[in-house]
Amino acid sequence: MPISELRPSDSPRLSGESCAHARTLAESDAELPPLLVHRPTMRVIDGMHRLQAATLRGERAVLVRFYDGAAADAFVLAVKANVAHGLPLSVADRRAAALRIIASHPQWSDRAIAEATGLTAKTIGSIRRCATGEDAQLRTRIGRDGRARPLSSSDGRLRACALMREKPDASLRQIAGEAGISLGTVRDVRDRLARGEDPVPRQQRDRRPAEPVQMRTEDVMSLLVRLKRDPSLRFTETGRSLIRLLSLHALGEREREQLLDSVPAHCRRVVAELAHACAQTWQEIADKFECR
């Protein structure tokens, strides 16, 4: 393939390719392996350093292998290839790639993305929670084996229950495939329905999320005192502003009651809406701090 017909890679490397690595490859006597190229766009998926090395050698053509899939899948291949061999991706490169894959493949499981990026599933989960583009309404994730599974087994059980009523002659294996749950789970759903029980076990039924534990006023004040003593905050205007804002919200139970009693009835709705807006802003700030 003529080098002039190839386009630069949609590289997962935040700082681009390493000129030093390309020179090292160019000075080597070893034959360069074929490049992986996305045929629809002619972009290099894997092999930019090899392409640069070939150019430094004065070559006009290189060996290539073509990939005909979607551009988003091509990027995943680029990440996998650079994790597996060649000049390794940095942790920052892999985290950025994971964030992008979460956006392009939101249905993929944390383990599937972890395998592609060389990160842990726990790290992917943290990145996913911090991603502003995350689709919270997704009901399934696609695992490393390519199979879609419901995020909650209760969803699959309810789907299986509905399918059994819609298709009474369907086999259990067919129901399992359409509902995205195991054959054993489908059998359990069938047996529960036969006994007149709920298809979802009690411990798997949806519950309201637990309310966050509220810190005691004494603990809040103690943390504020620590912040006020911190020189990095005390001696900067931004730091002092932060402490003032936090102090305004550190209300004890008595102050909260006094505040509630002092607001006129016709203003309560407006105050409530503003309080919700402030709470949302602080929650977003807290989430971003936890993700750094």
Average pLDDT? 81
What is the molecular shape?
Answer: flat
Number of domains: 3
Low-confidence stretches: 132-137, 207-213
The main sheet comes to: 3 strands, mixed
By DSSP, the count of extended strands is: 5
Helix vs. strand class: mainly alpha
Strand order of the largest sheet: 2-1-3
Number of helical elements: 14
* Run of helices and strands: HEEHEHHHHEEHHHHHHHH
Which band does the percent of strand residues land in? 5-15%
User: How big is the Rg?
Assistant: 28 Å
Helix content percent band: 55-70%
Give the distance, in angstroms, between the N- and C-terminal Cα atoms: 44 Å
Region (Disordered): 193-215
Organism: Lentzea tibetensis
Biased composition (Basic and acidic residues): 193-210
Protein name: Streptomycin biosynthesis protein
